[in-house]
Design brief:
963 residues; 22-stranded antiparallel barrel
Length: 963
């Protein structure tokens, strides 16, 4: 009996201990593909606020665990894994990469968020979405791919720059280009000695391009963010063995369309019909196609090799690129060498992260004389390229047209450019408060450029013998900020706070000289400096993982303004409702994502070109403008224009958006509706008579309103192991209006849009009630056969004469609608991608026809002849009046649809060995253009077509190999 009682007593003592027994679990978290440890992986005990993370060796330890508790292991870019604790003492957890989550992480200003938690209008493009083919710059990679973003290349030269507009731009005369941020460094859009500043970053080094469109997303950048922000993130290494990648292509370019000009026989017929005896005697016997003489089929090559990997707590990536692209204009060439380095290190148990990035490029350009493009259209085709003695044929008249081949061969124009862009960023998580992260980012962007050239000594005309210009720029940046993020179980969500200080200083300086007939002319050295400083803050509150509130504030200062107007304040707020998390939708299996977004914000603009528009400055004379007293020459100075009351231009934006996904994201997309109102526009307008130091000056006048609807969608109708088909696209509806200009002057307008032909003629105007830069023209009169009558226009005001009062506003260069759509198809190892883009409702002034389509172009003098476009056969215009140049006859519909890219590829899973994979691709660019426009290309920046460098059709053979 006593023995039984002792056993029962012992049982009662041990039983509660067994019930409440708690143990410690130790283990390691590994990358499933590389079997390397994952530092800073998060482990959460489900249903509690207990959280820990792995050290840099992937190890962790969790004490006081109870049997049956669930542990959730997570790591950014990997799928979560759940473990039920069963009193084990050690465990090894292997996490698998989640490609979907990697795709859904978007970069925002001073941080990143998951796409499903983003509150602003943000679009991220990766290699999956990039435009294929021989692109050499980031802007070419996203052309036609993002709703609300319109990119117009400046022409068909290799590495040519582009006009980029996000939601139409906001300003009249200030910079309307977006802000580019490369690896955390805001860069200036200067092309010191180069073509396209974005071409200095090798396209193979770019991981993603994120476009911030509405003010709630961009306001954290304050100044320069009125026109949107484009964030370029370059590739980084991953933990694991060394990986080597080669990506290269060879391309063939050819001219796709030539200007329709009179052939040699057509010109002879015209001169013999309408010309004088002297002019008829000038006709030659040749049949020269000058466009064939200046254009060629051009080869291009691009090679890039990268090495990446990681050991322990350090990852690395390094790359080298070589690009050699010839333009279709003879002698035109761009040669580029690039290097890229990215190092990331984690120290002190992942509490300290150090990231180093550097992108360096050297570019050498041979700029063909683009005057040959116009001369090939306007030079007499009845003449030979060369005279019998081997010299180039030229007319014996300084006013005559120039031999286009001589312009190419007897002029040298070169440009060299060096650029180094980089940053060092440190992130430190406090040991005693790991939710708080301190960040310091130090960046720079240095460029040097040299443009130089000369002319052949035997060139027929007196021109500059040689010239040289040197330019330098220095952009230095410092960001200091903190980030605090904490999960709060009480609200089943989180709070994130960010605040900091930004300093950026930009310097530009240079000099130049030219030599003509042994006389040296030195241009005065220049030095300009711009300083920008800012304080910023952001708060993100996530409530119940359903309602997300974001508020930002930035206070910006710019040295462009005086002390009274130097600082601007730019707030924003946004709200997102994850409707798919609500109980009444969560159980609807067909809805995989549904989020409503509301955004509001104000952004600023101060980039008007001039560095000192608000401060009195003086310009000293050069050697040719000195004043003589006796035998001495003295340098003079003159005051420059300035406006001390100049202040920030401000843009207020409202945005409503809906993100959606149906049928397990087989159908995805977004819809955004926005309105932008800009006030205190920075405009360059005429001064009143006898006022100021110049005829024009900068002022804050006027208001604009931009509105738009953006729709983007993708459908995956077929997806299985062997076959996948996706179809997607975007379309943007937009309109803009100048709502106010000068109080008390409702009819006031600012003429703009200079054209070739006549003297000082403009074809566009900025006036209240119309789209900025609308065409301002005379109404052409027509006969009963519908042909335009030479020199006859409609008297619109009925006063009996044709005056400037008869001009009216007709059409505009900006499109009502622009769009892009694509198809991606994979079948086993084969893949095919095709992308189209186009616009509707945009018009272009055909300055080629207006300037080269009338009789004076051919028969202006008795000493020489020119050639004309075939339009002369339709009109035979001869009027020399300014009204003819400003006729609405030359305003033409420039709507178009273009097959931008078609690429077919084959993937070799085992290429020469089991550890090597490769992809071979064949593609074409600019394959088809459908348009009613009469010129060679309807895509013209600014809406005035005056002999654009033709966009070539390009065929590309590419090879990508992974070792």
């Amino acid at each position: 009996m006593k023995t039984l009682q002792k056993k029962l007593l012992l049982f009662l003592l041990i039983f509660p201990i067994g019930i409440f027994a708690q143990n410690t679990l130790k283990g390691v978290v590994l990358d499933g593909s590389s079997q390397q440890p994952l530092p800073s992986a998060t482990i959460v005990i489900e249903g509690t606020n207990i959280v820990t993370s792995t050290d840099f060796d992937g190890n962790f330890s969790l004490p006081n665990l109870k049997k049956g508790q669930k542990l959730i292991f997570s790591y950014l870019g990997f799928k979560d894994q759940t473990l039920v604790y069963e009193n084990q003492s050690t465990v090894k957890i292997t996490l698998q990469e989640d490609t979907q989550e990697l795709k859904d992480v978007v970069v925002i200003g001073y941080g990143s968020v998951k796409k499903k938690d983003a509150t602003g209008s943000v679009t991220t493009m990766t290699s999956k979405n990039f435009v294929k083919g021989p692109v050499v710059a980031a802007d070419q990679m996203i052309q036609g791919k993002v709703a609300g973003v319109q990119i117009t290349n400046g022409g068909g030269a290799p590495g040519e720059g582009a006009e980029i507009r996000i939601r139409q731009g906001s300003s009249l005369k200030a910079n309307n280009s977006p802000l580019f941020v490369i690896d955390g460094v805001p860069v200036a859009a200067d092309n010191t000695g180069g073509r396209n500043p974005l071409a200095t970053i090798n396209q193979n080094d770019i991981e993603s391009v994120t476009v911030l469109k509405d003010a709630s997303a961009t306001a954290i950048y304050g100044s320069r963010a009125s026109n949107g922000v484009i964030i370029i993130t370059t590739k980084k290494g991953k933990t694991g063995d060394l990986k080597v990648n080669y990506n290269g292509n060879v391309s063939l370019s050819e001219i796709s369309t030539k200007v329709d000009v009179l052939s040699a026989n057509q010109l002879r017929d015209y001169v013999n019909t309408f010309g004088s005896a002297n002019q008829q005697a000038l006709l030659g016997t040749a049949n020269t196609d000058w466009q064939n003489e200046v254009y060629r089929k051009a080869l291009g090559t691009d090679h890039n090799v990268s090495l990446s990997g990681g050991i322990d707590n350090i990852t690395y990536r390094a790359s080298v690129g070589l690009t050699d692209m010839n333009g279709i204009l003879k002698r035109d060439n761009m040669n580029r060498a690039t290097t890229g380095v990215a190092l990331v290190g984690n120290f002190f148990d992942n509490h300290l992260k150090v990231e180093l990035n550097n992108k360096t490029s050297v570019m050498k350009n041979n700029y063909s004389n683009r005057g040959a493009i116009g001369s090939a259209v306007s030079f007499d085709p009845t003449q030979n390229v060369k005279n019998p003695d081997g010299t180039y044929f030229e007319w014996n008249n300084q006013l005559a047209g120039r031999n286009p081949v001589a312009l190419l061969e007897q002029f040298n124009n070169y440009g060299n450019n060096f650029r180094s862009l980089g940053n060092v960023q440190t992130e430190y998580k406090l040991h005693f408060l790991p939710e708080l992260k301190l960040v310091a980012n130090f960046g720079y962007d240095y460029t040097t450029g040299r443009s130089y050239g000369n002319s052949s000594p035997d060139y027929a005309y007196d021109v500059t013998d040689n010239y040289e210009n040197k330019n330098y720029s220095r952009n230095r940046l410092m960001d200091l900020f903190f980030n605090y993020k904490r999960d709060i179980n009480a609200i089943n969500g989180s709070v994130e706070l960010t605040a900091g200080y930004n300093y950026q200083n930009l310097e530009y300086y240079g000099s130049g000289l030219s030599v003509n007939n042994a006389v040296i002319s030195n241009s005065a050295p220049y030095y300009n400096e711009l300083n920008l400083q800012s304080f910023f803050g952001r708060a993100i509150v996530n409530l119940y993982d359903k309602y997300i509130l974001t508020a930002t504030y930035r206070r910006d200062g710019s040295s462009r303004f005086t002390e009274n107007f130097r600082w601007g304040n730019f707030p924003s707020a946004a709200f997102a409702w994850k409707m798919d998390e609500e109980s009444f939708i969560k159980n609807v299996s067909s809805i995989s994502n549904l989020k409503l977004r509301l955004g509001w914000g104000i952004t600023g603009q101060q980039d008007i070109g001039s560095f000192y528009p608000s401060q009195p400055t003086y310009l000293s004379s050069d050697a040719q403008a000195q004043y003589q007293f006796g035998n001495q020459f003295y340098t003079t100075v003159r005051p420059e224009r300035y406006n001390p009351n100049l202040k920030w231009e401000e843009t207020e934006t409202r945005n409503i958006g809906l993100d959606f996904g149906f049928l397990n994201d087989r159908i995805t997309g977004s819809v955004d509706v926005y309105e932008k109102r800009t006030k205190d526009l920075l405009a360059f307008i005429p001064n009143p008579p006898f006022f100021g130091f110049s005829n024009y000056d900068n002022y804050n006048i006027g208001k604009t309103k931009n509105q738009g609807i953006e729709i983007a969608a993708e459908v995956i109708p077929v997806k299985n192991d062997n076959f996948t088909l996706s179809i997607g696209g975007n379309i943007t509806f937009q309109n803009s209006e100048l709502t106010d200009l000068i109080d008390g002057a409702p009819g006031f307008g600012i003429e703009t849009g200079g054209i070739a032909g006549g003297i000082g003629n403009n074809i566009q105007i900025q006036t209240v009630g119309y789209t900025p830069n609308s065409f301002f023209v005379y109404e052409q009169a027509y006969d009963n056969q519908g042909k335009p009558i030479d020199g006859v226009f409609i008297d619109r005001n009925g006063d009996g004469s044709i005056t400037t009062a008869d001009r009216y506003i007709y059409k505009k260069p900006s499109a009502d609608i622009f769009y892009g759509f694509y198809t991606n198809l994979t079948y086993k190892n084969w893949d095919m991608s095709m992308s189209w883009r186009g616009s509707w409702g945009n018009y272009v002034y055909n300055n080629v026809d207006s300037n080269l389509g009338w009789s004076n172009q051919v028969l202006i003098r008795e000493t020489d002849l020119g050639n004309a476009v075939t339009e002369i056969l339709n009109t035979n215009f001869s009027s020399t009046s300014a009204e003819r140049f400003q006729s609405d006859y030359y305003i033409q519909d420039a709507s178009f649809v273009r097959l931008d890219n078609l690429t077919i590829g084959y993937n070799f899973e085992k290429f020469m060995s089991e550890k090597v994979s490769a992809k071979l691709s064949l593609g074409g660019q600019n394959l088809l253009l459908i348009t009613d426009y009469k010129g060679i290309d309807p895509e013209v920046s600014g809406g005035i077509d005056n002999n654009i460098y033709p966009r070539p059709r390009i065929y590309t053979l590419g090879l990508n190999v992974n070792f």
